[in-house]
Amino acid sequence: MSDTASPHEGSPVRLIPNTPVALIEIDNPPVNATSRHVRSGLLAAIQEVGRNPQIGAAVIACAGRTFVAGADIREFGRPPQEPHLPDVINAIEACSKPVVAAVHGTALGGGCEIALACHARVAEPGAGFGLPEVKLGLVPGAGGTQRLPRLVGLEAALDLVTSGRTVKAAEALRLGLIDQLSTADLRQDAMDLARDLIGRPLRRTGECAVTPLDAATASAKVADIHRKARGAQAPGRAAELVLLSASLPLQDGMTRERETFLELRSSAQSAALRHAFFAEREVTRLPGIDSVEPRPVQKIGIVGAGTMGSGIAIAFADAGFDVKVVEASEQALAAGQARITDVYDKQVQSGRITAAARDERLQAIEYEVGISSLSDRDLVIEAVFEDLDVKRALFRDLDEILPPGTILATNTSYLDINLIAAVTSRPADVVGLHFFSPANVMKLLEIVRTDRTAADVVATGLSLAKRLRKIPVVCRVCDGFVGNRILSRYRLQAEYLLEEGALPHEVDAALEAFGFPMGPFAVSDLAGLDIAWARRKRLAPTRDPRERYVDIADRLCEAGRFGRKTGAGWYRYDGGKREVDPFVTELVEEASRRRGLTRRSISADEIQSRIRAAIVNEACKILDERIVERPLDVDVVMMHGYGYPAWRGGPLFEADSVGLRPILDTVNERAERDGPGWEPADGLVSRAASGATFYP
Ligand code: 3H9
After folding, report:
1. Strand partners, 444
2. Any idea what DSSP says for residue 540?
3. What does DSSP assign to residue 564?
4. Per CATH, is 299-477 categorized as 3.40.50.1010?
5. Averaged confidence pLDDT in the chain
6. Which residues line ligand 1 (CB under 6 A)?
7. What sign has the CA pseudo-torsion 645, 649, 651, 654?
8. Domain limits of the chain?
9. How many angstroms separate the alpha carbon of residue 62 from the centre of ligand 1?
10. What is the mean pLDDT of residues 329-353?
11. What is the pLDDT at residue 544?
12. Rounded Cα distance, 145 and 168, in Å
């Protein structure tokens, strides 16, 4: 072993000039991003490999937890600095000596592009590869769109580049993205391969040919990519570039790629998606909680094996917790067990997990009748019927049997958790863990702290979220917490639009064009109208009589139309396809007549701006009341729980760019027409007046 030769002192890239195979090691925590010093260090190292007659080949590997996870996203707001990553990567490919990438962790974005330009790639089985740039509103900017199709073909490249998904090493091997899996010593295997390549003709990715797609297949794929992008521009632009790789030489393709990358880098969509990226991470850091030690939690109890309870059980089992599910009767327990088993069976059928993994996870879940067996649990979550008295009675019983220190969580989506905590002898140990359905899929977790929840219980919620790979938002108690509270305002506005002249499919179409995956009426049909109906009936006696109340949904329910599950709701579902139903149109028109409103045609633009104003105003009230601490908490909830398009950055990030004045004008106008509940929030009024923004 020879001495270490640094490209320069203090560089995050070290060249260890072993003979005949040198090691280039990148060490730039936390994720080895290609910041400027990494780029210059890597370039210097490659130049030295080319120059030094003692070195016959090189391996590029990384220190720490991962291979290079991409360009440094924090540099994107600033002018690019030399050396540029595409030039560094081209120098790797052009090197006269074999260069092999040794990949552990994830090779993402620029990291994947470095690997693609090497002459061969070896990876650990747990390694992942991906070009996630579209998730940041970008296209790969250092050859990814041109080199990937040269290795894996156009179809696979289109899929990977436009979805941004990460493939595990086994799939990467199957696709031809890598050459070898390393099951023992990654660096040694890469060194051995590099040594074998010395003196042999080098396979330069940029020189490989790409088989073109026929025109009809290509245009069908591009159309599908645009449809799935729902308004995001990067996937379509990335697809164009990938397709160009079949007709342009590498350098011409890379010139086009660079132009597109730089254009998108300064786009509003990319700024919004970068905001989303950092906000998702920032929500986990809460002032005052950061330094608090969480309680150790491994054994989870779940009360209730309905849809929510089952989904929560799966989420915990997937994350390696010991789970015990309890129900009140054998019958309900068996139904829950069947539901959970069915979810895992489907995952095996679709190839998402192996049969062995299913069996392991099923074994992690125990089933019992009655709550008495929960006394050995570290944390118990209730997911029973949404009724305050039912939940209070359950918490009273749980409090009696659970030892001190066990955390008691409720999955309620609306109820006052202060009132639930008050029946226990340990209100400091009570917290809301509001999962979204399906709980094993949806990323968002609202952690609701009551007036008395202990700081280490909140910290435990945050640490659980991390282990569950969920995105947590900590909030305080109010009706519906952050997401459902905003949603109920947004839904009401959608119903007012119906009375004033729009039809359900027009509202849905306008919001789907805005970027939501589904409009509110289609969502209601999917979720079922009956639960919200039961809630409305329960709240009817306490409703403000001056409130503008739209009863179309009640009438649909009275007609037995509970949504998809009954074949009809806001739409008709003949053969599963959503269709406009004249019965609903008639109900809507009759509602306008009863209200004495002359129906008028309402533009998609008006629909979008009224809904946006309703969301932003309620979000400001939530901030005024300190239900959450920061605007980014609201943005993250809306993007991850309610489908607010991430390329808009969430409602408050977007409000800054739309301007708060027009939003306030819309709110004022609605307050005048819609009555109580629509008063403009103080925070909105003052910000609009002073020109302040949510994100200075
Ligand atoms: C690109 O590569 C463009 C090129 O094609 C062309 C260029 C010319 N930059 O997520 P974590 C930070 S675009 C800067 O909590 P994990 C992150 O903010 C890039 N910072 O860890 C966090 O900081 P903090 C394409 C980054 O283990 C810390 O690292 N690449 C970057 O759950 C830990 O991150 C991507 O889009 C970055 N690129 O997940 C990959 N990445 O502690 C984005 C992370 O202060 N990154 N940070 O909050 C990821 O997907 C995940 O971070 C990763 C690790 C899977 C790597």
Report:
1. 471
2. G
3. G
4. no
5. 95
6. 30-31, 33, 66, 69-74, 85, 106, 108-110, 113, 132-133, 136, 140-142, 144, 281
7. negative
8. 13-265, 299-477, 486-690
9. 15
10. 96
11. 86
12. 19
Q: What is the pLDDT of residues 530-560, one digit of tens each?
A: 988 988 898 899 888 888 999 999 999 999 9
Taking CA atoms only, the protein residue closest to ligand 1 atom 40 is 69
Give the whole-angstrom CA distance, residue 503 versus residue 509.
10
446 is catalytic: no
| Listed residue (5, 22, 43, 175) closest to 100, CA to CA | 22
Tokens of 563: 């949504």
CA dist., res. 464 & res. 319, Å (int): 9
The residue contributing the CA closest to ligand 1 atom 53 is 69
Tokens of 227: 């449809």
The pTM score is 0.94
Whether CATH 1.10.1040.50 fits 486-690: yes
3-state secondary structure 430-489: EEEEEECCCCCCCCEEEEEECCCCCHHHHHHHHHHHHHCCCEEEEEECCCCCCHHHHHHH
Helix (H) or strand (E) segment spanning residue 299 = strand 299-303
Is residue 75 packed enough to be buried (19+ CB in 10 Å), middle (13-18) or exposed (0-12)? middle
Per the structure block, which two tokens stand in for 419? 């009132």
Strands 21-26 and 13-16: antiparallel
Structure tokens at 251: 């350098």
Q: What is the mean pLDDT of residues 114-133?
A: 98
In sequence order, the β-bridge partners of residue 5 are: 15
What pLDDT score was predicted for residue 5? 53
Question: Which fold does the domain 13-265 belong to in CATH?
Answer: 2-enoyl-CoA Hydratase; Chain A, domain 1 (3.90.226)
Residue 6 pLDDT grade (very low, low, confident, very high; cuts 50, 70, 90)? low
What pLDDT does residue 3 have? 46
* Rounded to 5°, angle at Cα 555 from 615 and 498: 40
Q: Which two tokens stand for residue 59?
A: 């391996």
The alpha carbon of 69 and the centre of ligand 1 are apart by a number of angstroms equal to: 6
Give yes or no for a contact between 420 and 392, defined as CB atoms under 8 angstroms apart: yes
Instruction: Tell me the two tokens of residue 308.
Output: 């929510």
| DSSP string for 94-130 | H-SS-EEEEE-SEEETHHHHHHHHSSEEEE-TT-EEE
Q: Reply yes or no on whether 133 is catalytic.
A: yes
What would the pLDDT profile of 151-185 be if each residue is shown by its tens digit? 999 999 999 999 999 999 999 999 999 999 998 99
